[in-house]
What does this fold into?
Amino acid sequence: MRMDCERVGVLHGPARALAEVSLSLAPGEHVLLCGPAGSGKTTLLKVLAGLLRPTSGAVRWDGEDVAHLDEAGRRRRQASLGMVFQTDALFDSRTVLENVLLPLHNRGVGREEARARAEAALEAVGLLQAARMRPEALSGGMRKRAGIARALVVAPEVLFADDPLAGQDPATARALCELLDRQAAGRTLVVSSPEPPPVLTIQRWWVVDGGRLVHDGPPAPALIGVEEGT
Amino acid sequence: MSAVLAALGRGTLAAARAAGQSALVLGRTLRAAPRMNRRELLRAFGHFGWESLGICLWVAVVIGVMVVVQSGLYANRFGARMALGWASGFAVTWEFGPLLLGVVLAARVGARNAAELAVLKAGGQLEGLSGISLDPYPVLLAPRWVAITASTGMLASVTLLVAVCMEVVSAWASLGVPPRVFTGSMADALGWQDVLGGTTKALFFGAAVATVSTAVGLRASGGARGVGLAAASAVVRSSFAIFGLDLLLTPVLAAGLSR
Amino acid sequence: MIPGPFTTAVRTAQAVARRGLSARDCLEQVHDQGNRTVALVVTALSFFGAVMVTIAYAQARKITGNLATVGPPYLELLVRDFGPLTCALLAAARCGAASAAELSAMAVNEQVEALELCNGDPYSDLVAPRFVGALVAVPLLCILGTSAAAVSAALTARYVFLTDGMAFLDPRFIDGWDLLSGGLKALLAAAWIPLAASSRGLAARGGSAAVGEATTDGVVVACVGSIVLVAAVGLLFQLLGV
It folds into this structure.
């Protein structure tokens, strides 16, 4: 799916979270969304995923204005999106397996097939042993991987990962990056992070600051105060 | 039979544990109270006291109208309107007013306190405070406790006053009892002891809500569902504490104040 | 901008029409809101029943001299006004706080958005089961609570004041209109409580303070709305003269 933002602005109450952001995302691209805390990264991801309505401007999916889509149309298109949330957003009254099964059940996938796919997704993130545990019993890194499994189980065309490395130790961060890198093959990936993650192969950077897009192009570590090669 | 006994035992143990935790919270809070954070105290007074005024006024209206309607049953059927004022005032200041106010504040104030503490605990912020060697009691918990208790006392006096005024109005509107007759019969039979008794009860109820909701919030676990359960169980346990206290306080206060 | 209880009701109806309703979730909510509130409602109403009789006794001593004569009108008052109002208030406090706190914690933790991307719908998956749960549980709670108040009044009169306790269980003044009025009050409050609490909960944004604020807001709107609805039905019946 191709995604475009045209002069998108978002107001959170009186505060401006995004201003005049225009960009486009082609199928298969891998993008890093960089910027300091509170610069509007999460807001931009949610606007792109259709979870947040922009206050001004337009978001288009394959050329269609999201604001003009009806409920059914929006849901049909959202079905090909996956998101790893900053807070994990796992449902804590359900087990890990039930969390991963939920999107399949809601799409009407049959019981047997759903189970096989959910277990495959958990296997891929190395969480099959923890399938029957509740999210509160998991470590931060495991919760993140459970979130990734839930996002990937529907085989999304576009995968958003909102600051997946926050609060992870270097070894876990590296493992998560390798996992994302493996899973990103053949799909569009947007990863937000305050600094460039290790390992991940990224062709394109978006840098936001104070709600504005200040860079859209090849990796530019100097822009966020990181030396090349570190 | 053994299943019933086991359930009874579990219930008793759980109640004892909850009482113990509350006692622990109360002790630590009182010890920390002299060193508490003044800014947090002001904020808590705003959130728990001032912002509760609206719902307390609603409760006052309900109490006033309901008690008059109830007393009116006797007055109308048995022709003793003169005593209506006394009976209504007595019901409001001693029993009905403090109890209903206590339960509503358990919901308004207790649920909020427990939910906030539960979220802070789930997010690790409470441990974070201890991590930078800040004791959460003087910084966070004692100011809330003091604000909730003191606010309840103040809100009770306002609520009881408004409830009595509402009684005068509704007795006049629905039963046709002239305000002068109503207040006259109230003034004859009710003294400052009755108002003091009701307010003292409410003060104790406030302390119960503060203690129980803090204990429940600190013990919450497990994400959104845990937060919801903490808020609900703060309401339920505070209400039980209020009923228990009412049973204890009514005879004690009645004996103490009538002397 | 915050969708109120009425908007929430419309959206919930639309979402349920589109996507259906999970029986399992509804049953879970009946349990959560019903079974877990029974102890509170029964204890509170027994307590209030005993208190009312104590007050009545104090009055009876001054006025009529016979506590038993106020029994039948007391039961009528209980069924028509006092029972539904008190039970609705308690249910609003306990269930309203639980729903508002859980949903606001979900909203703050991005779980509501996650649900949307899982092809779910917060209105049909979260609000509708709570609505059905309350619609079943709250009227039952009202019946249980009212019975508890009547029985405790009878027992208090019999064993504390040593008069005819059965007078407080004498239904001679209760007619169909009383039952209709009480039932209508219970049903309206049952519909209002989950909608008010859910709409406040889902609108929460921010951190722990937002959860606390949404919880209080939910409780206050649920309680005040229940009071207003009960009073409105009472007034309506008064105007109709029944």
Observations:
- Residues 21-240 of chain C form one domain.
- Chain C touches chain A through 13 residues (CB under 8 Å).
- Chain C is about 80% helix and 0% strand.
- The first helix of chain C runs from residue 5 to 19.
